[in-house]
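Why this split exists: single-chain examples teach little about how molecules sit against one another. For that reason, every record in the complexes split bundles all components of an assembly together and asks for one structure covering all of them. Below is a record exactly as it appears in the raw files.
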Amino acid sequence: MIPTDIAQTIIDPKAYAAQTPVDEAFKFLRREMPLDVAAPEGFDPFWVVTRHRDILEVERQSELFHNGDRSTVLANRTADQKVRAMMGGSPHLVRSLVQMDNPDHGYYRRLTQPYFMPQNIRKLEPRIREIAKSFVDRMAAKGGTCDFARDVAFLYPLHVIMEILGVPEADEPLMLKLTQELFGAGDSDMNREGKIATNEDEGLAAIMATVADFVAYFNKMTEDRRAHPRDDVASVIANGTVNGQPLGHFEAMSYYIIVASAGHDTTSNTTAGALWSLAENLGEFAKLKQNINGLLPSFIEESIRWVTPVKHFMRTATDDAEVAGRKIAKGDWLFLSYPSGNRDEEVFDDPFAFKVDRMPNKQIAFGYGAHVCLGQHLGRLEMRILWEELLPRLEGLELAGEPRRTEAAFVCGPKSLPIRFRMH
Amino acid sequence: MAYRTWQCENCGFLYEEEFGLPLEGISPGTRWEDIPDDFVCPTCGFAKSQFSMIEI
């Protein structure tokens, strides 16, 4: 059994904001008990999967380790019971690709998959470059200081995905706010109430209100796209069919919500985290500046590894199984730690160093197997284009204050990154 | 024969015969049919049989 203090650390939103406590906790676990059970107070026991190879092993077997049978994000017993009571027994507030297993997962994934494949995403490059240039120009106009997270990193991927989805620019602040409420529910700078919830009812009510706002917005969009289909993802969702039937309302709303939230927040976190690392590692910044085109692919993969914005997902064993010599029983719950896998000393040389030329880099921040991130090609493209536009113009870079991360144990990255810079 | 591109139907990973996958031990110029049957997609683990040839 994992010691209580370690178990508490790896589920603590504040520890993810500080990062070092989480890094130390997972370093200990990888060394001493790489696949063991945690049972923090108030939670059902769960296996903590810390090693790169074991995470792949679980994710590869999507029939043996389901997403949808229990909550896909770690939830304590009280929260789980309340969600089930509200949702007619289901442990999920939404039912997106993340909460589905086959056959539904395959049906629903195929609906938008062609849109997110590299050959289609590539067609978007000229427009994404225009957007990236406008943000880089705006940054240059700031006169040498900005909060890179708030002024650039939050807004650029948001604008790209909202154009793809079909949300007008005027509504982007609303989408950003709702996303931050959803993923930053435990952070008083980001969540709906602007304070830390004092009990489960309060926290759940805030998330439900956020989901309700998303649903109200996308209900209107569905009506519009059914009447006037366009060349956007909203039209695909609104008019899409699964086995000859229109998408269920709950599933359609969940589809919109995942595109409108996960479709930008993770790229924002990675982009901001990358610049933070460059500001703290000026040798790496200089190396990158000397060979931008040659090092961009490895720099981007290293940024994704370094930030790993999705901190965990849960899986549930559908049968008795064995992973890394441990007996997992049917019904057991597993916590897959992507940041731990991405710091695994057996896979990454000097894993706590940020290296713009790291090669090979088998980072697993996008997951693996059937549920591997659908938006990974878009995320990489957005980052490549932004860096192609920004790095050649960026001459000087330093932190201009203390950067801060969101307090969240699920999706977490920089919420504030004050920098000083010189650009031409 | 011109080089071809194969795509993983699950994650969209592209195998381009011209470039191979040197980091996976597959030399540039290796034809799809010469790749072992136990090859799996490097980004999502799906089997070789779940790749299809595409035009880029």
